[in-house]
Amino acid sequence: EKMRRHLFLGVKLATRRTFTHGAHMHINPLGLQVHQTVQQQPFSTGRRLQNDPPAPNGPMFGGRDPKVMVQECDAILNMNPKEPTALFTKALALHKLQAWREALDVARQAIEVQTVSEGRATLYMLQAECLYQVGEVVEALKQADHALEEGFEDAFQAQAIRSRSLYVLGRDSEALEAAELCCKEQPKNGQMQHMRGVLLHSLGQLNDALGALNRASRLEPDDARMHFERGRVLRELADQEAAMAAFEKARALDDTLPFVHNMLGILLSEADRLDEALAAWERAIACDPTDASLLANKGKCLHKLERHEEAVEVFQAAINLSAASGTASQETGAVQAALGECLVVLGRDADAVQVLEEAIKQFPDDGYLFALLAFSARELRDAPKALAAIERACQLDDNQAKWHHIRGALNYDEGRHEDAMKAYSRSLELDSQSPEAANAHCARGVIAFKHIGNKEAALKDFDAAVALYPQHAQAMKYKAVLLDEQGSYPQALELWDRLLELSPLVPATLTSRGKCLSRMGQVQEAIECFGKAIEATEALPAAERTAEAHKALGALHWSQGAKDEAYVAWCMGSDADPTDVYCYFLQGVYLSRAGEPEAALAALDKAIAHSKDSPAAEVLQLRSAVAETLIRMDESKP
């Protein structure tokens, strides 16, 4: 037993330089690089470890290669499988070779036969490091605690592994305590100062975190990750310029770190330097093509650049990558939400509805997704789905003016005018100054004017809309119609003229202006205005033409006694719009009074044929009268 103790101490002293004090640990605190770099994006990658590059397998154990040591230990163990010193030495050699699983298995065998307390403590510590490397942090923490209980002499090393394991487990306060002990023992250890800074940052102690990271970067100025963490803290302290400088320093030191390029992309995007941001994300993806969050950020940048088709492809690639790698479904839902928004912009509403419904399964309390769904469902004429979605959006967040505006429009579409009025009113409570508020005033005015009969309230809303947006054509049009009905012809004419200044050749506006002139007794000016309206109508595609100007011109001629000119205008109206029932009816009126009952009957039959619903009573009444006239004429014939 005494010989075994001396032999063990000799081996330990021979290997001490390569194992203790944390100086050559493969899993130093810098290996704890957290990829929390995807900020303001759909993905949240959580706490992941970025291990240091493997150390070269150079000479050790007194200048001997660890592979040789493993072979020699195996030779001893073939003769005595439970020889403690051989098991101990083999475990150390495998650890140095980064054969974590094999080292762990051998260490477990060694600890069963190891009777020396110091040896047991060392083996517990070795197990802790191997377990940490293979991601079993709960067991790693237990083994580190066992090492300390056994009196492991290097408290720094044990507390370092405890700090990292506790951090990965989300126990940040305990992790910070362990890191503080390490920094107290070795204040010039840049890696543990970095670890301390990461933990202080995680706990929201930004100024203290910055101090620790500044010390870490001074101690190890050539480590890119030190500067990266500094940049993250500076960004949260709203020092964007210093944060950018820190990230650029990190990139200059190591151009292969995807999270550095990612954070540069975020800062550049926030500064509206979108082309540079896109380039940064493309470099990040080149460094790590397996990270779906990087694709998601690139997609958002393309979306901002209005390169929507490309954004859709990138978002879809992110979803596929996430599915292939088994990423959490909530992260996939976040990308689906971004994809849905992009599809809405592109007008691909059917695809948008499908994607948004999947995203809502992951984010059932996200009002914005419901609002997007409502918009696309409305475009698809799916009123029940649209209305249900917007109602849910407004339940989740009652303070979004645009959502209430959409709610008002959907209720109006369904004929629920009182609900629409309430929705528009709520929208105006939240936003009374924007161009969208002008639209809400106009919509509320239309309801008051056309469906409630409150013309005074309607006029106030139209005035408010024009005051907010002087070129609001719809508000001016309805106000002009309302003034026309009230007999305020000069004011109405002024509005029609303003509308024609905005859009000179709109047939409907010219027609309304002509009607206003005719009511003011300015017959010749009205006829000229109707003529311009007819010319503008003829310039339109056939499917867009109407007979409104022709009917109005014919009515004016008729009122002036020019019956033949009226008939010509109505015939031209039928040429412009062969489906206009009233033109045929008016022709029938003229022909019946002109003593041409057969032609009148033919015109009235066309009116009936083009009636979408049941023909108007006046059409049927006139046809009956004309038919009776024809019968009497037939009876009077010899």
From TrEMBL:
TPR repeats: from-to residues: 190-223, 224-257, 258-291, 292-325, 401-434, 507-540
Domain of life: Eukaryota
Species of origin: Eutreptiella gymnastica
ATP-binding in keyword set: no
Gene3D superfamilies: Tetratricopeptide repeat domain (1.25.40.10)
Record keywords: Repeat, TPR repeat
Protein name from the UniProt record: UDP-N-acetylglucosamine--peptide N-acetylglucosaminyltransferase SPINDLY
PANTHER family with a match to the protein in the record: TETRATRICOPEPTIDE REPEAT PROTEIN 6, UDP-N-ACETYLGLUCOSAMINE--PEPTIDE N-ACETYLGLUCOSAMINYLTRANSFERASE SPINDLY-RELATED
Cited Pfam families: TPR_12, TPR_16
Lineage, uppermost ranks: Eukaryota, Discoba, Euglenozoa, Euglenida, Spirocuta
InterPro entries attached to this UniProt entry: TPR-like_helical_dom_sf (IPR011990), TPR_rpt (IPR019734), Ycf3 (IPR050498)
